[in-house]
Amino acid sequence: MKKPKIIVVGLGPGSKEDITPAVMQAVSQADVVVGYKYYFQFVEPYLRADAECIDTGMKRERDRAEQAFQMASQGRTVVVISSGDAAIYGMTPLIYEMKRERHSSIEVLSYPGISAFQKAASLLGAPIGHDFCVISLSDLMTPWELIERRIRAAAIADFVTAVYNPKSVGRYWQLYRLKELFLQEGRSPQTPVGFVRQAGREEQQVTITTLGDLNPEDIDMFTVIIIGNSQSYAWDGVMITPRGYYRDENLDAEDRKPGQNIMIESFRTIERELKNKDLPLGHKWALLHAIHTTADFDMENILHTDERAVERLYAKVADGTLKTIVSDVTMVTSGVRKGALARLGIEAKCYLSDPRVAEMAAAKNITRTQAGIRLAVDEHPDALFAFGNAPTALMELCDLIRKGKARPAGIIAAPVGFVHVRESKHMVKPFTDIPKIIVEGRKGGSNLAATLCNAILCFDDAGQLKPGRDL
User: d(Cα 218, Cα 196) in Å, to the nearest integer?
Assistant: First the structure.
């Protein structure tokens, strides 16, 4: 009698093109094939004429394993078939556990197959280019509390996440909960999500959306979902998660400074801790910069941006119409990144050290910052004006706007202090045609005004959440 053997094989996701040669050969040499009856259609062309087929319905995995050991004990070569890879949510673990339980001497082999998440990934493009995990939402044998902890861990760790068994007739709410948890743990609503129904079969459907727009009602039990990480993006009809090779080969030495990596990680941390994550991109970008500079999450409550203010101001930077940033004090211009200014051809100016300022301030009995704004408006009436210290300077600009002498490209209103600070910020609000970023109340500062300028200058990095290009 020949040596008994059980070979557990994965048939791939469902098309003959995805069955490996090793699996085909094993099936062709089998005395007995055991499996769920639906899968026999995929192996029938490779079976020996005298091969015995033992098929069962769904949820009969233990019965199949017992039949496999019974047949193998008769000296026969038994092949147990599973879809995908038999070791991933398949029959292989059960066969090995049963061998251990029975103290069986029957040889067990496992031949890998293409898993459904691998097939889905290939159809979506390249969503699993970096660290990933696979989570099943089936709670038939795993408590939901444990599944939920795994979901949270995947979201927090920024894994690309493949989701198996996302839905069934009785399991209708779990995918809603997964989406909720990912958003709660900081995954952006713009995160690309791909899902594939009936991967590799005639009924195949491939869809790319975002985490925010993912509708669990579009998903059924035959669907595999892949949620991207913070670096994933959709492009030209595909989903891509970069490994980092392209970046490493093409960025210059300055862009590889460790400071940018620290800043990127800081921004991710801040984003995870925001109370409200579903924010317009421009406002979120400015908010992340403000909190990063101050470590003050009260910015969520007091930072105001006009509708699409950051986007509108960056558009002026990009088309060359915004050429100058004027600040009330030199500390603001010192904090605006010199690399960004040089890259974009923009000049940042403060008039406080101009000899004309002291002369005008004495002659007109006004503050030096007021005098500086008057001179700035004479020479650059269409600049972006950024205030981080002096409310009187902001009030002066408001007066000049009302007189038709200034027409700023935008205003950053972040003066700080106790006298006229709140009033100065209220004064700027009626100019509805000018895009404004305002730090409400008494808080503000030169560092805030500068970082908000930087947020505008590097807004093209916002979508990928990659600050610090010009550090």
Answer: 11
Whole-number Å distance between alpha carbons of 224 and 124: 11
Q: Measured between alpha carbons, how far is residue 404 from residues 399, 408, 431 in Å?
A: 9, 11, 12
**Cβ-count burial of 278 within 10 angstroms (0-12 exposed, 13-18 middle, 19+ buried)?**
exposed
Q: What is the largest CA-CA distance in the chain?
A: 114
In angstroms, what CA-CA distances link 429 with 235, 381, 464? 39, 18, 31
Of the pLDDT bands very low, low, confident and very high (cuts 50, 70, 90), residue 187 is confident
Residue 318 identity (one-letter amino acid): A
Q: Are 356 and 380 in contact (CB under 8 A)?
A: no
Per-residue pLDDT of 430-455, as tens digits, reads: 999 999 999 999 999 999 999 999 99
Q: What percent of the chain has pLDDT over 90?
A: 83
The reported pLDDT for the residue numbered 252 is: 45
Q: Name which of 66, 72, 86 is nearest 22 in CA terms.
A: 86
CA angle at 367 for the pair 362 and 373, rounded to the nearest 5°: 105
Give the length of the chain. Answer: 471
CB-side neighbour CA atoms (13 Å) of 334: 7
Question: 89-124: b or e for each residue (b if 16 or more CB lie within 10 Å)?
Answer: bbbbebbbebbeeeebebebebbbbbbbbbbbbbbb
Give the C-alpha separation, 171 to 346, whole Å. Answer: 57
User: What pLDDT is stored for residue 247 in this prediction?
Assistant: 53
Show which residues are catalytic. Answer: 292
Dist CA 309 CA 140 (whole Å) = 50
- Which amino acid, residue 96? Y
309, pLDDT greater than 50 = yes
SS3 assignment, position 135: strand
